[in-house]
UniProtKB/TrEMBL annotation:
Forms a ternary complex with ligand-binding receptor subunit IL18R1 and signaling receptor subunit IL18RAP at the plasma membrane. Mature IL18 first binds to IL18R1 forming a low affinity binary complex, which then interacts with IL18RAP to form a high affinity ternary complex that signals inside the cell. Interacts with cargo receptor TMED10; the interaction mediates the translocation from the cytoplasm into the ERGIC (endoplasmic reticulum-Golgi intermediate compartment) and thereby secretion. One of its GO terms (molecular function) is cytokine activity. Belongs to the IL-1 family. The lineage of its organism: Eukaryota, Metazoa, Chordata, Craniata, Vertebrata. This is Interleukin-18. Keywords: Cytokine, Cytoplasm, Secreted. The keyword Cell inner membrane does not apply. GO terms for cellular component: cytoplasm; extracellular space. It is found in: Cytoplasm; Secreted. One of its GO terms (biological process) is immune response. It comes from Myiagra hebetior.
Length: 190
């Protein structure tokens, strides 16, 4: 603290690192650090469960039998919750799922000018130093519906996880949402 006239000003210590980069001591970094993991199934507005089938490169909401539910293949998700220094955006989360003896994580990639939701083999990292194509912001679906959520893609604001009908499938996709619109295809219950 430095006293100038009658006003106190808080001064942060700085240090120059490699290549003369400026570092501030005692400030929180913007990296995301894993805080907890929730184990859930993901349901759409029709009470269908999200099922991941990596062999077919498909993730879709389906009606699931009790027997399929017990086997749990591609149905039981780990929701990795991260600490953040910007809580107003929503809780940062990443999704992973076990299929047989392999773990897959959800990510988004641009393909032919369109954002595609994919599941890739691998583990979700404990720390994410900056932006990442695996992070979604968990937000309450509506103020009167606190048990359902929508998940905004962290790298493209206004794009949310949703489902779209494609033949007999209700495929997991990213969908643009207008400011005041309520879109039931984005409603996901845990």
């Amino acid at each position: 603290r430095v006293k100038m006239s009658a006003e106190e000003i808080l001064v942060c210590a700085v240090e120059l690192g490699k290549n003369f980069c400026l570092y501030f001591d005692e400030l929180e970094c913007d990296a995301l650090c894993k805080e907890k993991i929730l184990h859930r199934v993901l349901r759409n507005v029709n009470s269908q469960l999200l099922v991941v089938r990596p062999d077919l490169n498909v993730a879709a909401f389906e009606d699931v039998t009790d027997q399929e539910m017990q086997s749990g293949k591609g149905i039981h998700f780990s929701i990795h919750c991260y600490k953040t220094t910007t809580p107003l955006a929503g809780m940062p989360v990443a999704f992973s799922v076990q299929v047989e003896d392999k773990s897959y994580y959800m990510c988004c990639e641009r393909e032919c000018g369109k954002m595609i939701v994919r599941f890739k083999e691998g583990e979700v990292p404990k720390e994410i130093p900056g932006e990442s194509n695996i992070i979604f912001f968990k937000k309450t679906f509506t103020s009167c519906c606190s048990k359902a959520f929508k998940f905004e893609y962290s790298m493209e604001r206004g794009m949310f996880l949703a489902f779209e009908e494609e033949g007999y499938l209700r495929k997991l996709t990213l969908k643009k949402l207008s400011k005041d619109e309520v879109d039931e295809t984005m409603k996901i219950s845990l």
